[in-house]
């Protein structure tokens, strides 16, 4: 028996030759034979879901060699047709009785019980692309001796779906309310003309399409089930060739399936379409499947399973850039964390259950973002913590800070970074009073005492020392020496390099402390940022501080031109300033 989609009808009808039709017309019964004509009720559409893309309708045809059971009394006679098509003749030997019942396919174990026939619909079914296993198509009919014409009707229902990809070995259907789908059942006519499924014994709640582990081809498949009402939808479980299982929950398929009707479940995708849009900060994008296989673009998208990994690099000529912020269909997903591996930034997507548009966006810097030695930043620590240069404590250009002061190192001011570690290891533990030699440190500049311009101030102090013939060391201009020779954390190319921040910049650091800069620093270093007492901050050297007795209490350079006016102070005030940089 053939079951064909209407899209394939032209091929099927071409096989019904004129010779076959003549054979049917000219057939005559031999002595002892009773011949029956047989036609088929076409399977009707049971639903019209907007999501389905399958061709409507199914064409049913007989195939030469098809066999049926002709039932009467206690007899079960085997009949066969020598031809194929929509209308054929079955021949065999039977007694002449008033009424005959028939069952397709032939089953030697079936017996007629009054007007009822009991048979079995197995729950393991053979998958047939663009059709279904015709041996499972339980059809029945009845006729009289006078008519000798069977009109067969399918007593089961069909659920149709389309597999869009290969790699599937089995498909299992289950009702979400554990409905009975297969098993031993009885068909009866009662007083009507249409056969009805009356009861089911040894019922099965799942039906599986499989063929001894053979991978299914792409195409349209049908699962044969008993008529049932799906109150909570259905679930398809796909057994993959790699041993994994994928589950597709079709909870909106709440249908009452009828005999001789086909219902579309639509396309069942093993792979989803993943499209990626990226800003020009990102390059060398690759997508890998769960097994690590690199995928190729297919019509502008990648075809992925329930999980994949996206890898990319940051374009060197576009920095500073964020290390990547992923947006899925317009909503930021906190689950899409970025990691770093083998020179790439990586993002793993899991639980993919639909076509996905992934946007790789360059995020503007924020206060408390981690800043890395490759001139990138991120809201969370990515990669080795030693690659973190510091924490962003201000974004945008500070008041009074001019790009022209940066000696051509910058074309734009994006923000400022506080180094992750102090420049020394003493942490202010040496309480040595300033000597006359050391007091040279106290000779600085007073041109920008309160401005943001730490870089410009640092240059002024360096020039001041150079004019006086002073070689910077730990015993003179200690803050500047330690800040500008800071090497514990890398100052990326394309930045100002490390310098000694200003009082106003350190005030911004203190404000950032109130919202968590201390905790952020401790994520990427072992350094501590803490107050020596209620007023003084440790490791906050400045290039503009005049007096350590103010409320902020920063240690730094005093703007005193007259060495004789320099007051004594602890040498360790200058040993451990934490430098800053501009990016």
Written overview of the protein:
The chain has six helices and 40 strands. The protein is mostly beta strands and 583 residues long. It has three domains: 267 residues, no CATH class; 92 residues, no CATH class; 196 residues, no CATH class. The strands form nine sheets. It has a seven-stranded mixed beta barrel with strand order 2-7-6-5-8-12-13. It has a six-stranded mixed sheet with strand order 28-35-34-36-37-40. The two termini are 76 Å apart.
In short:
The chain has 583 residues and is mainly β. It contains 6 helices and 40 strands.
- State the distance separating the first and last CA atoms: 76 Å
> How many separate domains make up the residues?
3
How would a textbook summarize the main sheet? Answer: 7 strands, mixed, barrel
**Total helical elements:** 6
Which strand order spans the largest sheet, edge to edge or round the barrel? 2-7-6-5-8-12-13
Shape: rod-shaped
Q: DSSP strand (E) fraction?
A: 25-35%
């Amino acid at each position: 028996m053939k079951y064909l989609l209407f899209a394939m009808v032209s091929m099927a009808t071409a096989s019904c030759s004129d010779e076959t039709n003549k054979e049917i017309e000219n057939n005559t019964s031999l002595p002892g034979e009773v011949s029956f004509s047989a036609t088929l009720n076409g399977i009707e559409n049971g639903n019209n879901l907007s999501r389905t893309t399958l061709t409507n309708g199914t064409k049913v045809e007989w195939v030469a060699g098809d066999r049926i059971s002709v039932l009467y009394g206690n007899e079960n006679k085997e009949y066969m047709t020598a031809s194929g098509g929509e209308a054929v003749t079955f021949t065999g030997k039977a007694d002449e009785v008033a009424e005959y019942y028939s069952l397709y396919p032939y089953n030697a174990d079936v017996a007629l019980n009054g007007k009822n026939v009991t048979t079995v619909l197995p729950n393991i079914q053979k998958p047939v692309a663009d059709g279904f296993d015709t041996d499972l198509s339980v059809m029945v009919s009845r006729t009289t001796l006078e008519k000798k014409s069977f009109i067969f009707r399918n007593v089961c229902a069909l659920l149709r779906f389309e597999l869009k990809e290969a790699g599937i070995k089995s498909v299992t259907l289950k009702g979400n309310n554990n409905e009975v789908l297969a098993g031993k059942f009885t068909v009866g006519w009662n007083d009507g003309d249409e056969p009805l499924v009356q009861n089911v014994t040894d019922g099965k709640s799942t039906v599986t399409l499989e063929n001894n582990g053979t991978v299914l081809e792409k195409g349209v498949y049908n699962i044969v089930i008993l008529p049932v009402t799906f109150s909570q939808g259905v679930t398809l479980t796909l057994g993959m060739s790699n041993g994994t299982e994928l589950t597709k929950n079709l909870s909106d398929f709440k249908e009452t399936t009828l005999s001789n009707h086909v219902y579309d479940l639509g396309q069942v995708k093993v792979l989803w379409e993943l499209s990626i849009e990226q800003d020009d900060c990102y390059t060398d994008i690759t997508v890998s499947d769960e097994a690590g296989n690199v995928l190729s673009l297919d019509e502008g998208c990648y075809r992925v399973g329930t999980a994949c990994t996206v890898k990319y690099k940051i374009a060197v000529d576009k920095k500073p850039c964020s290390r990547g912020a992923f947006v899925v269909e317009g909503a930021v997903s906190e689950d899409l964390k970025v990691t770093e591996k083998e020179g790439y930034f990586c993002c793993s997507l899991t639980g993919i259950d639909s076509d996905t548009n992934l946007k790789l966006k360059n995020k503007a810097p924020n206060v408390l973002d981690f800043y890395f030695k490759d001139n990138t930043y991120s809201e969370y620590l990515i990669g080795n913590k030693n690659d973190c240069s510091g924490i962003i404590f201000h974004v945008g250009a500070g008041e009074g800070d001019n790009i022209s002061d940066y000696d051509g190192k910058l074309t734009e001011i994006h923000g400022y970074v506080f180094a992750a570690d102090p420049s020394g290891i003493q942490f202010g533990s040496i309480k040595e009073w300033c000597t006359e030699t050391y007091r040279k440190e106290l000779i600085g500049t007073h041109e920008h005492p309160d401005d943001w311009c730490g870089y410009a101030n640092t240059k002024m102090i360096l020039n001041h020392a150079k004019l006086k013939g002073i070689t910077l060391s730990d015993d003179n201009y200690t803050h500047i020496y330690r800040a500008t020779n800071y090497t514990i954390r890398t100052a990326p190319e394309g930045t100002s390099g490390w310098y000694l921040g200003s009082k106003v910049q350190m005030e911004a650091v203190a404000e950032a402390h109130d919202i968590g800069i201390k905790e952020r620093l401790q994520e990427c270093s072992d350094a501590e940022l803490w107050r020596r007492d209620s007023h003084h901050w440790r490791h906050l050297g400045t290039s503009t501080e005049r007096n350590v007795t103010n409320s902020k209490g920063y240690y730094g350079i005093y703007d005193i031109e007259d060495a004789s006016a320099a007051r004594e102070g602890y040498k360790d005030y200058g040993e451990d300033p934490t430098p800053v940089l501009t990016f």
